[in-house]
Amino acid sequence: MNRVHLRYTESASLAHPGGWTSPAHCLESREAAERLRDATNLLSGRSAAARRTWHITDCPSENCRVWR
Length: 68
Prior knowledge:
This protein has helices at 30-44, 46-51; strands at residues 4-10, 20-21, 25-27, 52-58. By secondary structure, it is an alpha+beta fold.
């Protein structure tokens, strides 16, 4: 399986006038990224989940230096 990066963005708000992009996480598969996305949305609540746009992209290399 190919490793992927998972991150999310939020549009501008009072707390983050310029918007927000989370740090990327490098995960072992798209399925693992989808599970982490779903768990994060569940724990953060509907309001926070509704503000987020999730991005799952292919990892450029095995040594990508992104948090695992």
